[in-house]
Amino acid sequence: MKTGRQHPGRHRAFTLIEMLVSMVIMSFIMIALVTALGQTQNLWNQTQDRAEKFREARIGFETVSRRLSNAILNPYWGYDDAENPTEYARQSELHFVVGPSDVILEASRENCGSAVFFQAPFGYGGEEAGARGGGKDYEKLDDALNCWGYYVEYNSDMEIGRPLRPDFLESSPATSGERMRFRLMEYRLPTERLALFDDDFAAGAPLSEALSSSDINHWFSDSITRVENSSPVAENILTMILTPRAPGKVASQSIEETDIAPDYHFDSRRYQWDDGNSLSEITRHQIPPVIDMTLIALTEASWNRFDESGGDALGLLEFVNSLFTESKRFDEDLKILEEKLASLKLDHRIFSTTIALRSGKWITSPQK
Amino acid sequence: MIVITIMGMLVGVTLGGVLPMLHAYRLSSSAGQLQADLAYGSQLSGKLNVPIEFRFYRHDDLNSGRNLKAFRSYQLVKRDGKTGDVIPLNRITHFEIGIVIHELENFSGILDIGEQDAGQQDPTIPLGNQTSDEYSYIEIQYRPDGSTTLPKDKIWCVTLVNENRADEDILPENFRTLVINPVTGSVRKY
Description:
Chain A is of the alpha+beta class. Chain A has 9 helices and 11 strands. Chain A has a 6-stranded antiparallel beta sheet. Chain A has a 3-stranded antiparallel beta sheet with strand order 8-10-11. A two-stranded antiparallel sheet of chain A has the order 1-2. The chains are: A alpha+beta, B alpha+beta. The A-B interface holds A 16, 19-20, 23, 48, 52, 55-56, 59, 63, 122, 124, 128-130, 157, 163-166, 168-169, 171-172, 174-175, 186, 188, 228, 231-235 and B 2-3, 6-7, 10, 32, 35, 39, 43, 106-107, 109, 145-147, 149, 151-153, 155, 157, 171, 173, 175, 177, 179, 181, 183-184, 186, 188, 190.
């Protein structure tokens, strides 16, 4: 007589308990695997984020260096006074200005660090620049003059009148949030809109007769907010510091390298609005031969964390602008800023270079 | 039976979570690759000091045996200075399986440039085990100064989606959009 216990198949099968135990063990293994996978994925994302963000910063860094080295002023010796000449003085129809953006842009927007505006032969004009109608006339002028500039701005990618992304992204939950970032901006004015030579450049007077820095700077300050003139080159650039320098001690005037811009502000037309300043004659229609450039780039991940945790971006902007007011204190200010970024847990990298401006032939005598 | 049912439920739950994750990963991967290659095109143009064309190819998906035309791949090319022939600068890069460019101009503004059929000057492209000249393309040109030939008065974008939803009026939950700055050539991923 056969019993259930003697059934040949019963001994080879797993019991329910055995299966449940094995499933629990498998579950533990799977949880461990998924956790490890998740951590690897996070690490991968962080590494990728770091590489991508600094790649963009490197492109921006290289762009500014390359463009700025082509700045020109085309100075010449001319009468100091056209109607009653007494000597020859340096003259130019162009303009070069670099300095704290809250000074030269007059704090009209949320700008951080230095800004620079200049002219260079980039041949940007016509339809290529978005012009319509007869714009093709400018397309073969490869060396035509342009007005150009760089500055850092804290702005939104959904700014009214100047959006940086298409509307449909706002309707998607994943991309609907506004992206407020510090951006390295490029200002470019096509050849056909060059206004420097207008007889009524500033309130009916030509550029050479303007008497205030705001009148002189209006060739860029008026048009900088127009979407076709300013575009972001790189995102998450906290600040850009530009320090103009002369190549060594300036003979006969006993001033040091950085003394040509002790407050980081260098203006080739300072003599028109700050006549009593000793820098006015030294910098008159000159381009600094050398500019030290420092860019501070943040990672997207750390900025996201800062932003989502309610970090005070405008407070940080003000903090940065309160530093870098004396070029002699550059190293100390940079150290203070690094400590601040570390305390805010903002991952960053500092890019530095020295840009030689090819047409910057420093002449120490103001007249002859 | 109980064990099999429990295991079945576990597998179902796991697959339900893994498949969308896998699809999202494919989208991200394709978008990341495209973003890097667009930046490479801009830099290559500056390095070689010649205009570089970035082409998006529209063709069948011969790998899966389906004749469903879509923008599935891209390539960097330049023109021969004398003959005008198209010279490929790298191999064709295909998006991940099942990933294509959205077919509507609302979401993929670069389609507004206008599609061109491959001509005699254009190279054949490998599709599956054979080459083909039955494709069309759109192209963006990078200039050596880093800018593009895209008109400056518009925001240009490319949206990658699952090919099953490439012609819907509403964006699916999973998508990646790359916004191309026509002035500086920089690319932003959303």
